[in-house]
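FORM 12-B: Structure-to-Sequence Request
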């Protein structure tokens, strides 16, 4: 990104990126992530380990070195015989959460219970939509730890019309479930007209205190990230400044930076 890349242009409002990929085997190293944050004007970030790679050493190291700016969300293979021990070690090392797929949860719901016992926030990736985890929605709601459904639950469009996605509203009844507003461009083209109805419904059902924003860097970079934040700030959702601040800073700080393991 060039030095004259667009920035948020804000004066004093803090912004926390609730979902940025970081790694040395996949995605970008910490130097690139910090450069991105500086150029765009983001104060802090949550760094997430790539799925399929449960060697979290690099992420743990960089989040310890840059503790003032980042927290980390690790990955643990669900079939590891020492899974519970590894989860405890991640929490002890300062990780704030752990990523899981819908398949992980369906095959072994105890996995989530072990993560909750370790004091970790649980981030769920649903590549085929949230319908896969609806049968265990009650279990997810009973975990006693925050759960974040990433990327708006991965909605899909067909001929410009929402095909799947509204199922995510069923989780609004679970007070511990949060939604990550990120990756809109994976489902729809800017300005996201086909997603606006779903985004509004999620905002109404969950409320601004249970929604977080994430850049999805580096799958989205400077211009896209600034555009998405401007969409939330001045777009069709009609957010108040307080709601916008909750989505883009307050909630991420509470979940990732101030959690018992954070």
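FORM 12-B RESPONSE
SEQUENCE OUT:
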């Amino acid at each position: 990104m060039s030095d004259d890349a667009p920035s948020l242009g804000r004066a004093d409002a803090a912004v926390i990126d609730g979902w940025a990929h970081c790694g040395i085997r996949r995605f970008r190293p910490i130097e690139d992530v910090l450069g991105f944050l500086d150029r765009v004007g983001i104060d802090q970030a949550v760094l997430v380990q790539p799925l399929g790679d449960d060697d979290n050493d690099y992420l743990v190291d960089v989040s310890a070195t840059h503790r003032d700016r980042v927290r980390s969300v690790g990955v643990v293979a669900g079939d590891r015989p020492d899974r519970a021990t590894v989860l405890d070690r991640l929490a002890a090392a300062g990780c704030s959460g752990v990523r899981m797929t819908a398949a992980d949860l369906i095959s072994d719901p105890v996995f989530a219970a072990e993560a909750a016992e370790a004091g970790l926030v649980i981030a769920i990736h649903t590549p085929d939509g949230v319908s896969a985890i609806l049968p265990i929605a009650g279990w997810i709601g009973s975990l006693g730890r925050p759960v974040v459904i990433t990327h708006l639950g991965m909605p899909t469009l067909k001929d410009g019309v929402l095909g799947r996605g509204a199922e995510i509203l069923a989780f609004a009844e679970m007070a511990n479930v949060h939604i990550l507003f990120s990756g809109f461009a994976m489902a729809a083209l800017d300005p996201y007209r086909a997603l606006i109805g779903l985004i509004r419904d999620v905002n109404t059902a969950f409320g601004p205190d249970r929604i977080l924003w994430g850049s999805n860097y580096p799958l989205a970079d400077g211009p896209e990230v600034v555009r998405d934040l401007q969409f939330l700030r001045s777009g069709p959702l009609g957010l108040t400044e307080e709601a916008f601040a909750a989505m883009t800073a307050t909630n991420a700080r509470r979940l990732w930076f101030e959690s018992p393991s954070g």
